[in-house]
Amino acid sequence: MSTPIIFNTLHFDQPWTLENYLKVGGYQALRKILGEKMSPDAIIAEVKASGLRGRGGAGFPTGLKWSFMPRNYQGEKYLVCNSDEGEPGTCKDRDILRYNPHMLIEGMAIAAYTMNVKTGYNYVHGEIFEAYERMEEACEEARKAGYLGKNILGSDFEFDLHNHLGYGAYVCGEETALLESIEGKKGQPRFKPPFPASFGLYGKPTTINNTETFASIPYIINNGGQKFADLGVPNSGGIKLFSISGHVNNPGNFEVPMGTPFKKLLEMAGGVRGGNKLKAVIPGGSSMPVLPGEIMMDLNMDFDSIQKAGSYLGTGAIIVMDETTCMVKALERLSYFYYEESCGQCTPCREGTGWLYRIIHRIEHGEGRPEDLDLLLDLCNNIAGRTICALGDAAAWPVQGFLKHYRKEFEYHIEHKRCLV
Amino acid sequence: MINIEIDGKRIETENGSTVIEAAHQAGISIPHFCYHKKLSIAASCRMCLVQVEKAPKPLPACATPVTEGMKVFTHSEQAVKAQKGVMEFLLVNHPLDCPICDQGGECMLQDMSVGYGGGASRYHEEKRTVLAKDIGPLVSAEEMSRCINCTRCVRFGQEVAGQMELGQAFRGEHAEIMSFVSGTVDSELSGNMIDLCPVGALTSKPFRYKARSWELSRRRSVSAHDSLGSGLAVHTKNNHVLRVTPIENEEINECWLSDKDRFACEGLNSPERLTKPMIKQDGKWQEVEWQTALEYAANGLRHIASGAGAEQIGALATANSTLEELYLLQKLMRGLGSDNVDFRLRQADFSADGKQQGAPWLGMPIADISRLDSVLIVGSFLRKDHPLFASRIRQAVKKGAQANIIHSVDDDLLMKVANKAIVAPDALVTALSQVAQALDAEKNGKAQTASAEAVAIAKSLSGGGCVAVLLGNFAQQHPQAAQLQALAQQIAAATNGKFGFLGEAANSVGGYLAQATPGSKGMNAAAMLAAPRKAYVLLNVEAELDTANPQQALAAMQAADMVIAMSAYRHHATNYADVLLPIAPYTETSGTFVSAEGRVQSFKGAVKPLGEARPAWKVLRVLGNLLKLSGFDQDTSEAVRDEAIGGMDIAAQLSNASQATDQPAIPTPQSSGMQRVSDVPIYATDAVVRRSAPLQATADAAVPRVWMHGSELQKLGVKDGDMVRVVQGLGGVTLAVAADDKLPQGVVRVANGHAATAVLGAMFGTISVERA
Amino acid sequence: MLSDQIQAKIDRELRKYPADQKQSAVMAALRFVQDEKGWIAPEDMADIAAYLGMAQMAVYEVATFYHMYKLKPMGEYTLTVCTNLSCQLGGVNETLLHLKNKLGIGLGEITTDGKFGLREGECMGACVDAPMFTINNKKLCGRLTGEKIDQILAELGSGDKK
Ligand SMILES: Cc1cc2nc3c(=O)[nH]c(=O)nc-3n(C[C@H](O)[C@H](O)[C@H](O)COP(=O)(O)O)c2cc1C
Ligand code: SF4
Ligand code: FES
To answer: At what angle do helices A101-115 and A129-144 cross, to 10 degrees?
Structure first.
């Protein structure tokens, strides 16, 4: 495996300190752009060249997103980092916050410089309080050392970063819900348009990126966008953090180039637990359609390959299920999650997620009816694409995926009132 | 302008509008629940999904901006499937209890489900139940399981009423509309939530179960309670008024109604209604025939006129009386030879009489308030005296207008106030003159010597754009009202602005047009009571509640030889009157109100008068006939109206200009004691409102307290909640005291117009407070 | 009334946000109250509303929307167990069973001595450490085994609560 880029401090005892970050060339990129007075256009060009696509799930090209920020806007603009990682299976951002917080700070400072923003917020998932505290300390450290605040590194560039702790709402990962949450409201997503780039935090132009997205920036600036792009495959530039959880011997986060074969990642995670047979894999966080093990074993982990197979790379969170897994039970739990986490504003999501869950719960508990499966699919069609945010889709896709590949198992459950496995 | 196509129909619409707006404009209806033209866009119910050419999925019409060449399909297969899907979701947790639901027949969900419902439900899971809530006496939230979480009520509170009393707590399927720890909704505009709720979750509590909507007849009417002139739909069944809802008029009340206008009707059928003429004989009240009562009254008047002289007769009417009533009342008096007639019962300063160039009015159309850039509101309990004027100003402030306040109390107006000067009543004139002074200094480049607040207010007003100075009830009732008016005039002139009076009641302008004010040799309301007359004719008046000085008014009544009370209710007049003539309240008579903006609005009775009550204009006409006065043979109220104002150029009659242009003197502060500040509580303003049980059960109708600055409480050695005795002249009352540190020092706030304070004296004046 | 410590903490939090956006500190304010008292009562919400100049109902909306706020007492140590898919696959059922047996309570309950409360949580964003729980929303303990649980509970000062 090549030298890690995001986890480049992991070999230290205390990977998170400023001191250690500096040892591996930390804040060089920031120093470089400030020293060279690099133009925002040049930075955006590098980011575009890097092929970096948002690591928050939607895979939107980062350079393009940055170019949407109004340049000549008078007044505050904001930069927001989305560390609200709460999509089942996903836990890569937590490790960035815990082990390399300064890389995030540097990435955000560069973004802030590029978009002429003075204030940033990092929204941290509520359950990882220790990571939040680590970020608070890191920001303080950076402030003291002149990497945040006024006159950063002696330049006239000013940027400060604050951490905002979430408190138990998955939907706040959706960027506009996240903004509402920073504003001290319920995390209910906003209708778009207007998009955050014109009406964001406190109604001001705002750019939001995922933690890993920001953490990829310093490397791109130091080494050039092309170098980053070359690490990956066409249309999926660079390296990526993959979280592998579920039925593997050695669950964990792995930093590998985009396009790495799934098979290889599975090996890195120690293979399927107990030498069991691989049954199914969710390749990109719980919202993405599940794929059968056989299909996965032939796939590479990049945006296009996974999409061709009928799912999405999403956040790169891989949930591995072995032959002992009851697919009805697995889906029941996921559906419960979306039911529990719906913010409650859109009718299809508020009423539909509960309906989906209750049907699947009945099937799991031996009270399914033959017509239930078609009903489920019809309801999914009535939810997906009909809501303000993508949580509606996120609730529908798993159901559609599970029924596409494992319908037999559901039918068995309905008919025999028990598990196939 | 932008061209789009909806269902094949070409529509030209404004850039920046949404698909639903464009559709409505073209008369195409798109189903919707959360969308409401007066509220922010939630785009959450998803009922309005439509197909848009080139869009991969259906889009919500309420939130989708139009773009040039856009093609929208509201009935295509994709659109209908989406709409049906949403409807199915809306119904899964809905109780489907239409047969017993109060909203039945006027329910958006019911109407639409008939069009979209798929027959048998596919939902076989357990339905959610939502607990009933008690949010006060006006709005029922008993059936919250029916709520579809459109959040219209929540947005209304936040955006229009200015206070977030309802919210959507919890999330997902557990989301519930509720108030904080079961608190009541106290907004003076709360009833609008009933209209806004598209289903039967929030309903009218007083109206609950009284009738089904299709059993009701609707009659147009006009609000009798404040000067806005809101349009009312009076709903009746079996000759009873069962509820009142707004008639939309963008120029007046938009689509809103204050709770006062909506729920006052509950007072119409109060058990206190007077339904038979009565006369007092040997100290005992007897029900008599109309003829007897009227002859008795006429004889009495004739007797006093020919004996003591007509100037010994005084007529007092409330400003809630109709134009026709006021007109005939003054005509009767003048026919008898008395010039003593007045409807300005709470006014104290009449020095502008005779100098006033026309009827004092708002000084601008109501709708212009929404376009103001800066406004100075002088002496107004704005939110409570004028709920919908306040709401208009609130909306203007949201759009960037600056509201400036000069007043003696600092109640929360639920809007951003740019500058304020809160001073004792005796300093009100000074405070306003300082603004004039600051403007003058600003204009002439002189050094500013005025107070910082005055300078700031002057700056706000001189910023250009649409500017207005509005004088509230308190300013109009103030003992130096004429000076305040002159200063407002001066400030308006200096800022190129308008100035005007918000107006206390439905006919505060109409009373002038009806000439119900004393002529040069007559006595005004205050004079008539200060120098008691031998006889009084009262029209709708409760002497101890409707006047500036209840103590004095009551004494005058008690001293009179004869009091003829025309009233819809039996009330305290039974103690001092000789004849009680039952007259019809505004729903039982035709008549006319002239609103603050000078809009003449006539209405018809919605129901027949209760019992033997008769429209007052008819009673006055017969009295005129019995007194053999000429000109009392009108057949209809319209004939009375036409005689009063027919052919009159109303606009030419309205003027706030006063010839009293002298620079007003700075008054000397009152010597000892405390200064009284009194409001007329929102649900104490007139006889009908005072008898509406649901309104009387609201927080706003609580027994008045004695409000003082905390330091005054300390001086007295009492604490919040203790009982204190307030005394004015010969009368005193024991009430609970409360601290309001936003009040100026030396000031005691005690309400007027309320039975609990009716023994006190003048609304403005010295008052003493002691420990009880 | 909010304690001086809480007020000081809120004030520090307020420095993160624009001066006219005090409401932004409401989530932190609720958290501070919960940290101090173990749960958040309506009176606390009213105090926070007054302190931040918000409508009380707006505070209530926030307190009921985010699931880590406790609106009733949940024990001196609230253990929130993630039961989502990765944790389910990672064996959280055994974890729960162990906890329930050990503490003698079910989900949503507290031990009779008020020491421990057990709650179900949603994805904590730490799935590779399944199964896991958080203690008082502060400390995340992952890769739980029966032995490890016993050790944690012992450190928090519990005997067997059967
Ligand atoms: C329901 C929902 C949950 C989401 N959760 C997260 C999240 O936890 N972290 C994240 O970065 N993006 C999340 N997103 C995506 C964000 O809305 C947004 O696209 C992303 O933060 C943009 O950053 P990126 O361009 O760097 O990927 C979520 C989206 C939805 C609809
Ligand atoms: S889709 Fe669900 S979570 Fe997203 S805004 Fe609508 S109700 Fe809220
Ligand atoms: S009316 Fe458009 S979403 Fe509700």
So the answer is: 60
